Amino acid sequence: MSTDLVVSDLVAGYGDAQVLHGVSFTVREGEVCAILGPNGAGKTTLLRALSGMVKARGTITLGGAALTGRPPDAVARLGVAHVPEGRGTFMPLTVEENLRLGAYVRRGPSVEEDLERVHQYFPVLKKRLKQAAGSLSGGEQQMLALGRALMLRPRLLLLDEPSLGLAPLVTRELFRIVRTINEEERTTVVVVEQNAHLALGIAQQAHVLETGRIVLSGTAAQIQADEQVAQSYLGYRV
Amino acid sequence: MAGFVQQVVEGLGAGAIYASLALALVLIYQFTGIVNFAQGELAMFSTYIAWQCVAAGMPFWLALVVTLAVSFAGGMLIERVIIRPVEGAPELTIVIVTVGLFIFVNAAAGWIWTFLIKDFPNPFPGGALEAAGISVSFSTLGVLGVVALVMGLLYVLFQYTRIGLGMRAVATNPASARLVGIRVGRTLALGWGLAATVGAVSGVLVAPLLFLEPNMMGGVLIYAFAAATLGGFDSPLGAVTGGLIVGVAETLAGAYVGFIGSDLKVGVPLVIILGVLLLRPQGLFGRAAVERA
Question: Which GO terms are recorded in the biological process aspect for this UniProt protein (chain B) (predicted)?
Fold first, then answer.
C-alpha cells in the first residue's frame, strides 16, 4: 500500500487570523519534500496543520487514512512524527527517557532495537543517556529530537527548521543523517527550512510558500535553477 | 535530651501527615500548574466516605480500599467536569474555581454528615514503642510507615512505569507529549485522581488524631502549603521533606519557645512560607526556571 501524503485545499490559522489559504501538494512515499519560503509564509503552520496541532480545513491523507480533524496524539499513533520548532525536548527528563517517549505508542522488544538504531545514527546521544536533556547543546538537542521522532518508526517525518540556531557544520551533519534515514528506512519526509541549499540538497520535490499559498512547485533541481528562488532564498543569481 | 528527641519524633509524626497532603498538592501542581486550594476539603470528604463505610459495618482496611478507589474516580471526575472547562484560563480564574470547590465540598460534607464531630477509628494499635526513655506511639509509627509507602509507590510509578513516564512528559512539556502520542487530557485526569487518592490517605491518617468534622483539614492544608513551598512545588521528594521539617519545627517551637506555646503554633507555617518566598522562592528541592536554550 502506498503511503503517499496527499494535501488538498488546506486552510488553517489561529483564531481569526488565517495563515494558510488553500495549500495542495502530494509527497510520494519515501520521498523528501522541502517547503521553502520567507518568514511568516506559513511554513510552521503547515507542519502544525499536518500533525493536528492547529485546526485545519481541507483534506490531509496519509496512505489513504484521513488525518484532518484528528488531535496530535491520534495523528502520532498513525505514524506521523513531528519535530517541532524549538525541538520539543522534555528538558528535565534524561536523554534515554526522551527517546523512550518517542516510542510511547509502541511496546515490545522492538523498542530496544530502535534505541540501538538511534544510538548508531547519533553516537553522541549514547554517551549522554542518563544526562538531563536540558543540559545538551542545541545541536545535541536537535539530534535528540530527531532520534525521538525515529523511535516512533514513523511513516511520515515532519521537520521544522532543523538548522535553526545551529552551527553550519552541525547542520550539515544533521541533514546528512536525515538523508541516510530517508534512504535506509524509506521514511517520507517533509522538511521546512530557511536554508534552501541544504533542504534542496536532500529533497526530490520542493514547494515555495508565500503568504500562505504555494507560489512555485517543482523538482528540487528545478527549484534550485529557478532565477527568482535563487534571488530570494539562495542569495545568488543563476 | 530525651525530651527533645521525643518532641522531634512527635513532630515527624505530624509532619508525615502534612507531607501526604503536600504530596497531593504537588502532584496536581506539577501536571497542571494549578494550586488546588480544595485539596484538603477533598481529603476530608474522602475521610467521611471511609467513616460511612465503617459505620455501615465494613472492616477498616476494606473501607480504606473502597475510599481510595472512590477518591481516585472522584478526582478524575472533578478534573473532567470542573477543571477542564477553565484549562488555560488565567491563574486567578483557576484559583477562584478551586476556592469555590473548597466551599462547595465543605458545605456538601456538612449537609450530608452535619457539622457535629465524629469519632474516627484509629487503624493502628494503641500503646507505644519504648526505647532509651523515648516513647513512640504505634500510631505515629503507622503514619510514618504509610506515608513512606505512598512515597515509595509514587516513586516506582513515576520512575519505572510507562504511564509514569508519560505523566512526567505531560508535566514538563504537554505540547510535545501530544506529539509523541500521549493522550494529555486523560493523563491530567489521572493526575487529579492520583492526587485525590494521596489526599484521602492524609485525611484518613489525620482523622483519628483530630476528630472528623468538615473543617478538620483547614489547619492541615496550611501546613501542607508551607511544606510544599519549603520543599518546592514541583518536587514530590521536596514536599515530603518539607512536611517533615514543618512538623518538627512546629512541635519544637510549641514546646521550647515560651511565647509561642500551643496557641501560636499555627503561625509557624506562615513564617516558613514567608521566609522561603523571600530567600529561596523555588524551595529546597525545586527547580528555578532556568534552562539552557
Answer: amino acid transport
**Min Cα separation B199/chain A (Å):** 26
Are the beta carbons of B174 and B87 closer than 8 angstroms? no
Residue B209: Cβ within 10 Å count:
15
Cell matching residue B266 = 499555627
Query: Is residue B190, in this structure, part of any structural domain at all?
Result: yes
pTM confidence score:
0.85
**A95-121 confidence digits (pLDDT tens):** 999 999 999 998 778 899 999 999 999
What average pLDDT does range A60-74 have in this prediction? 91
Q: How many C-beta neighbours within 10 Å does residue B202 have?
A: 33
The residue with cell 491518617 is: B205
pLDDT per position as a tens digit, A8-40: 999 998 988 899 999 999 999 999 999 998 888
H helix intervals, A36-192: 43-51, 72-77, 95-102, 110-121, 123-126, 138-150, 168-185
Q: Is residue B239 part of a domain?
A: no
More confident residue, B175 or B264: B175
The reply to whether A71 touches chain B by the CB within 8 Å rule is yes
Closest-approach residue (CA) in chain A for B290: A134
Cβ within 8 Å, pair B172-A76: no
**Span A118-163, pLDDT tens digits:** 999 999 999 999 999 999 988 899 999 999 999 999 999 999 999 8
Q: What distance in Å separates the CA atoms of residue B275 and residue B173, rounded to the nearest whole number?
A: 30
Domains of chain A by start residue, with CATH:
5-234 (3.40.50.300)
Read off the pLDDT band of B140 (50, 70, 90): confident
8 A C-beta contact, residue A97 and residue A111: no
Interchain contact A105–B (C-beta under 8 A): yes
Residue A224, min C-alpha distance to chain B (Å): 32
Q: B289 and chain A: CB distance < 8 Å anywhere?
A: no
In a domain, B213, yes or no: yes
The phi, psi pair for A144, rounded to 5°, reads -60, -40
Secondary structure (DSSP) of B187-199: HHHHHHHHHHHHH
Residues in A closer than 8 angstroms to B162, CB to CB, are 104, 107
Residue B10 in domain: no
Q: Residue B210: which domain range? A: 20-217
Three-state secondary-structure class, residue A65: strand
pLDDT score of B198 more than 70: yes
User: Which chain A residues are within 8 Å of B165, Cβ to Cβ?
Assistant: 93, 97, 100-101, 104
The verdict on ipTM greater than 0.95 is no
Rounded to whole angstroms, the Cα distance separating A148 from A137 reads: 16
